[in-house]
Amino acid sequence: MAFWEDWCRRGGCCSCDCDCDCDCDCSWKECAIWTAVVAGVAGLIVLLVFAFALVFPPKGGTDDAVLQRFALAPGTPASNSAISYNVTVTLSLRNPNLYRGISYDPVAAAFSFNGSRFDESATVPAFYHKPRKTATFHVTVGGVDKPVKLAAAGVTAFKAENATGKFDVELRLDTAMQFKGRKARCPLAVICPLELQLVDPNVATTAFQKTPCIILHAKKSGC
Ligand SMILES: *[C@@H]1O[C@H](CO)[C@@H](O)[C@H](O)[C@H]1NC(C)=O
Ligand SMILES: *[C@@H]1O[C@H](CO)[C@@H](O)[C@H](O)[C@H]1NC(C)=O
Ligand SMILES: *[C@@H]1O[C@H](CO)[C@@H](O)[C@H](O)[C@H]1NC(C)=O
């Protein structure tokens, strides 16, 4: 038995009004062509919806980070502490949209340790992000004896991490973005938890594990 007859008897081409007692020879090809056409059109619609109707927020991650200095002078109370630091972070944002570019407002970068911000000085200028492209930034901050409002737990956390030379620092980027062809301005926050190994001058390079960032975006219309 030919494969299409077998397929027909199992009801495979019933949508083509195939009479299963008859010889299906003449209609299976037609049926296969229609099936292919329907699948092709459905695929095209899905592709067009993804390319033009839906918008996707960027994805982000840190590619590299260098911590040259991270020293705390604990105060009494802990909120009177002072911090000296030098940090450079390289991060990348990818625009996953097939067709839509994204315009970003100037980006504010803030670093915190144990939930207390210690640097808000860095910014990234406004830029346009082409579809399907990855944009890379370097954020460099430094300070000497800058006041930091640590919690008591922050001093404890610093002492514990100071013993290992590895510090948990969070980088947060805040901006607003606008998808090309849409009116809405969409708030966007990129939160990058970093585990930074203090550079040891006796070791040439310090390994950095690439880490994904958390993307928070408004789920309103047009965003
Ligand atoms: C601050 O450090 C304490 C002590 O290590 C820890 O329990 C707490 O979760 C930390 N808080 C934040 C916001 O990281
Ligand atoms: C660390 O930061 C301070 C303050 O911004 C700066 O003066 C110093 O040159 C930096 N040190 C290094 C090694 O980058
Ligand atoms: C952190 O560690 C360094 C050297 O490992 C030490 O000199 C410094 O006193 C420590 N700081 C605190 C606040 O414990």
Automatic annotation (TrEMBL):
InterPro entries: LEA_2, NDR1-like. Residues 90-181 form the Late embryogenesis abundant protein LEA-2 subgroup domain. It is found in: Membrane. One of its GO terms (cellular component) is plasma membrane. GO terms for biological process: defense response to other organism. The chain crosses the membrane at residues 33-56. Pfam families: LEA_2. It is a single-pass membrane protein. Keywords: Membrane, Transmembrane, Transmembrane helix. PANTHER family: HARPIN-INDUCED PROTEIN 1 CONTAINING PROTEIN, EXPRESSED, LATE EMBRYOGENESIS ABUNDANT (LEA) HYDROXYPROLINE-RICH GLYCOPROTEIN FAMILY. This is Late embryogenesis abundant protein LEA-2 subgroup domain-containing protein. It comes from Zizania palustris.
